[in-house]
Amino acid sequence: MNDYRIRGYRPDDQQALLDLWEAALPLDAIDAPTLSRKVLLDPNVDPDWLLVAEDGSGLLGFLLAIIRREPFPGVGLEPEHGWITAFGVRPAARGRGIGTALLDTALGLFAAAGRQTVGIAPYVPNYIVPGVDVAAYADGLAYLLRHGFEVVSRPLSMDANLVTFDFTPYVAQRAELAAVGIDVRALRPDEAPALLTFLTESQPPDWLRAARALLAQPDGREQITVAMEAGAVVGYCQYAGEHFGPFGVRADRQGQGLGTVLLATTLGAMRRRGLHNAWVLWTSDDAAERVYRRFGFGETRRFAVCRRKLS
Prior knowledge:
Elements: E1 5-8, H1 14-24, H2 32-40, E2 50-55, E3 58-66, E4 81-89, H3 98-112, E5 117-120, E6 132-133, H4 138-146, E7 150-153, E8 156-161, H5 168-179, E9 183-186, H6 192-202, H7 205-215, E10 224-229, E11 232-240, E12 243-249, H8 258-272, E13 277-283, H9 285-292, E14 298-309
Parallel strand pairs: 4-5
Antiparallel strand pairs: 1-2, 2-3, 3-4, 5-14, 6-14, 7-14, 8-13, 8-14, 9-10, 10-11, 11-12
Helix pairs in contact: 5-8, 6-7
């Protein structure tokens, strides 16, 4: 008989959960404001689906299971999907069946809610990491594969040092674009509506949310670069602190070097702001080779995005 129990999160669990999270997922520890912003205040998170395992000594493991309870722009409620965005067991408590008890409880919740697939962890907007770190959490990935999950993609995160990078070649490219009527520069106050139109019409829904959140900050507009043509935004890039991205170019303006100039202009703005590094949390091998490596980005972590079919 198990000497622990599985239950939903309670408000008085906060510090114990944060301590457990750091012990179980040391590369992905979060603080109280992040827990509040990305988990507890997410309208799709039900505290009863933030599962914890406990015994008389305290919390031993946790699992965050999510389904959409409010529609998200562009995808709606996604009634066939569920997500596990964080999952871990305290190292000293492993081998007692706690992870399996948490997972079985979560899969039961998903099945009862009519879900057909469970993903780890491509949920937007409030994912913690793209998936399972294949090096840091190799045992965890092996565990998931034994329990019916399959790897569907392997994105990577990348970092670059900005201090010594030479941006000179891209100044000429920026001038060439200006000569044909495309101006790459910081967003101006009156251009926010044009940016939001561009994002709504041609970019992923989560990018619109990210841009709105940045624009709501006192200095947010200064962290957005746009490509303007005839009063319309045809490309955009943003950063928040050292976090670079997202950035994209309208389909009919791709292949003209515009993305390269947007990236270089934004990284230059980051360096002028006094930042020494830039990082991208989630990208593909294709984008890494085509875009990021030429700017000095190197692979920092590799993730496995996993999925399990329930029916």
